[in-house]
Amino acid sequence: MPILHCIVHRIDKADGEQPAELTPAEAPLAPSPQLDDLLAELTTRFNAKRKGWGYFREDATARSLAALLPAYLETAEPEAFATLSRQTAESLRELVEQQLPTGGYLIMAHVRQGESEHLTLALLHARAGFGVDSRLAVVPVAPLNVSQPALAARIDLTQMRAGQSRQYVAFTRDRGGQALVEAFRDWLGCEEGADAPGETRTLLKAFSDYVESEALPDAAAREKTDALLDYASDQAGRGEPLTLDALSELVDDQQPRAFYDYIRNQDYGLAPEIPPDKRTLQQFKRFTGRAGGVSISFDSHLLGNSIEYDAERDRLIIKQVPDALKTQLRERRS
Prior knowledge:
Radius of gyration: 25 Å
Order of helices and strands: EEHEHHEEEEEHEHEHHEHHEHEEEEH
Strand order of the largest sheet: 2-1-4-5-8-9-3-10
Largest sheet: 8 strands, antiparallel
Number of domains: 3
Number of strands: 16
Strand content: 25-35%
Distance between the termini: 66 Å
Number of helices: 11
Shape: globular
Oligomer: single chain
């Protein structure tokens, strides 16, 4: 993951009514293995977060990232990046002052990953702690809390320049209340263009309908379910959308367009690219429940095949009882 430019600014916010203060860096950071490791860890953590997805609004305010970014992209030189980052930090200082109890360190990085370029930013808190120096003495340290950024976003600059995506901005929405999420989204100058949990649920519903329409045996249904979940989970872990074309090929390599055509013919309203939601994917893998001494867990693809739910009478019907359970039941009856 080559780092084109990276910089760190500090935003301090004291207790009380004092305004937040910005301490800007003078120039971008020099490349180093430590910086590579930091950004790699930050990327991994960001990909695992619950996120919103969208695109920059044309009417974004002058203080938003959407309005500040174009001037930098005209040259993408280090001096222009330093200017962008200072403007961004000053604008973010106002949001911190209004919405957050404490400040932190603003990390901004322009990176290239494969054929794509991204702008990543994150506001990280520092945690007081202890370490051991080269003389084996205990010293105070303040490590960055990379696992829990107060705010973070990633802009896919390649998709933004292409002008065909409505989900090239990804931003965290797993911390704070709705007011913070909306304030951060407005600060980015972003309009949400994709509902990741909702679209993931629609995709999984379409897949369940497809499996049922094909009347597949359990083994084949499980294989296709695993293919879908493996691909979607992998894309979610990388912070990338899944494409219906690629998914359709994975679901059935003998008929690579079958699932894609099914979705289109049934008009589920899905876009060609979908930002996968990890929480929704995890819930799809298995149905589980426990009450009154009864514990039930089964793979989701079995619903409608080996297992049926009668909603009117609130009954779960198991058509194929596991052999081990049958043996226990027969022994109890005898």
